[in-house]
Amino acid sequence: MILFNPAFALVLGACLFAAGAYGVLARRQIIVILMSIEILLGAVGLTLVTLARALADPGGQALVLFAMAVSAAEAAVGLAILVAFSRTFHSTDADAAQTLRG
Amino acid sequence: MFIDIIAVLLGVAAITSAVLAVTRANPIHGALALMGFFLALSGLYTILAAPFLAALQVLIYVGAILVLFLFAIMLLDLKAVPPGAEPPRPGALLGAVALAVALAVPLAIGGIALTGWNGRATYRAEHTLGGASVPRIVVPDRVVAEDVIFHAETLGAAVVRAVAPDGTTYDLPLGRRQPVRVEAPDQPLPFVTEDSLEIPPAGLATGTWEVRVDPSATQITNLWLEVRGRFVWRPVAADFGSTPWVGLRVLAEQPAGVEIVSILLLVAAVAAIAIAGPDARRSAVPPAPTERSEGGTRPTGWSSEPEGTLTAGEVHA
């Protein structure tokens, strides 16, 4: 455990965050965008847990615990929005929401 | 070393499954890759001394959130995106790569600074004059001494002693003596003693080192202690990250946060029902009239058909 360097886990968290950001930016399927948001939250959680271990600080793990609960709430509301979106626009393509376009 | 190999394997699995989850055309495949990502993340949490969070990761993410995703995919009958339906966005790929570099470089620098990876730090006493004053050197946390060098320059014989943070004492043998200069011809020839002692690596050198001088010493001209070490992970208690530990930190020290989060979850449950419930049916875009005449073939292939979606209102109708 001493040999496990925090730089490795921090860089890994950055790469995972970038992968999730690519999903949010490039994909137009709403469910994939929501899954990418979960990847973003997981990457941040990995960074927090790594720094909690490296600094021997309990705050990081407590924050990840709260982030898990918030992410569960986010998933519930996000999927409900997806269901409502699908009923309203008869599509799950994020680009289908164009009713505000003049 | 073994744990390093496991960590690298888990990291590769996490990256691979995350990339698969965001690039697969079929959302079911994406959800399964997301499960791999959550499990790899749980394994990394275990290595990072967070076993309770690792268990929660599996319980909440794989057990609840992922099942919710699969439920939504099956409820809305989401199909794979046909090739060409999502135009490639090179700007998004470029932005993601730029984001990865912009995040990874400062995080790598910070992580290396936390451990002193291939780096060393030297700590010296702030003041080096002896006599009544006691030179101290404070070594910060997370430092393992690689060598501790004890330097003293005295005029005349003196017993110089270094006291390690754990109480171990190291006496400086006064071996070499050499005359330096004659101040005045009628005075006895002063001798300066220059010597240094390499204290065997004392392991964790964290704490305050002291240099003590026998008061009978004639004169101390220079005296210092040099600790050369490297950073390591700060040692943590054996129960770091365990269930009672996290429970104490969260429930006893952050009770307001627990209350806020529980209220947030309640509000989210109510909001989900309010957003997607049977009373919230409104259609902004009428379904295309050609959709029904084509006999079940979906024009876009992956958008859900309103006719095929079973809603609570249609059950009662």
Kindly describe this structure:
The complex is a heterodimer of chains A (102) and B (317). With 102 residues, chain A is an all-alpha fold. Chain A is built from 3 helices and no strands. Chain B is α+β, with helices and mostly antiparallel strands and 317 residues long. Chain B has 8 helices and 10 strands. In chain B, helix 1 (2-23) runs antiparallel to helix 2 (27-47) and helix 2 (27-47) packs antiparallel against helix 3 (51-76). The two termini of chain B are 65 Å apart. The interface between A and B is large, with 79 and 106 residues.
What is the strand content of chain B?
15-25%
Q: What are the low-pLDDT stretches of chain B, counting only 5+ consecutive residues below 50?
A: 175-193, 291-299, 303-317
Q: What string gives the helices and strands of chain A in order?
A: HHH
Instruction: Tell me the span between the first and last alpha carbons of chain A.
Output: 58 Å
Q: Mean pLDDT of chain B, nearest integer? A: 72
Low-confidence sequence ranges of chain A = none
